[in-house]
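[Meeting: bench + compute handoff]

Bench side (C.D.) handed over the final construct sequence. Compute side (W.E.) agreed to return the predicted structure before the next meeting so the bench team could plan truncations. Sequence as handed over:
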Amino acid sequence: MKSYFRPEIDALAGYTPGEQPKMPGLVKLNTNENPYPPSPRVAAAIREFAAELLRLYPDPTADALRDAIAERHGCRRENVICGNGSDDLLTMVFRAFTDPVRPMAMPDPSYSLYPVLAAMQGAESKLIPLTENFELPEDFLDRAKGANLLAFPRPNAPTGASFGRGAMEAICRGFDGIVLIDEAYADFADDCCLDFATRFDNVIVMRTFSKSYSLAGLRLGYAVASFAIIDGLMKLKDSYNVDRLSQTAAFAAFEDREYLAECVAKVKATRARLAGALRELGFRVVDSQANFVFASPPGGDGGKYFEYLRRNAVIVRYFAAPRTRDFVRISIGTDPEIDRLLELTRNFVK
């Protein structure tokens, strides 16, 4: 059949965020969802929502939510943009700053969606290998030269490691282009770089409600940057990219800081327990600052471990690329879910 797609679309390897198999008693630890429900304030806000308002378009710029975000982060509404999940915002950024003559650079390994978004703009992707321990190489900035956009998560995905603030600041100062710091997992980390978004004219810091706020099914994210960058992105976004109900529910979640802290603390405690148990079983475990761990079983056959867990209805994420094939990525679940995974793992390593 004749293809009517642009050539770069036909050439894409594809992007799969994680399969969703259906199995009895499935333990699903493959997509980094929060194991706990969202704030009770979210349910209350949805119950109290006036359904008749759905006949009206939402606020196209989500100003009430932007004001709350700006107040939290010590900036102004004009520094904030909201999107239909972080992926919506990433699409805007790649449309704005990449094209066939403006490449994108990123660490390798990192978020697998970035090269797909670059290819959709006909842009080259410069993949800069991390060290053996998944740290930034000393010549990272030199290798990124020539790119117009430098994109990476902090903490990184899929490794969970976080790059030092000092190194990040040097990159923001030294890179001649836009630096995108994707902080989807920042609430689970020891620190963040959100202040860079207003300190540097070339920095965008992105956050999501999918992870720490337990709203992956709602689809809402935001970015903070200089007035000029946000103004440009506003020109690219869909007219009504965040629906009325999502704005209401996200606002309720964002205001419940106590519940957020409780959920984050539980996830971090389980993360520490899982990492410790895996190390005792002989696994190599990358120090994680996210809501998952990146672990390699004894012998380094990540694929074999992945398939073993899958046969026993525990689903984790496996990346078959050369830099990642020794590992699996395990999302932090509830304590009973992690107990089940560890029970299977002890049998696996016998």
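W.E. noted at the follow-up: The chain has two domains: 7-37+258-349, 40-256. C.D. will use this when planning the next construct.
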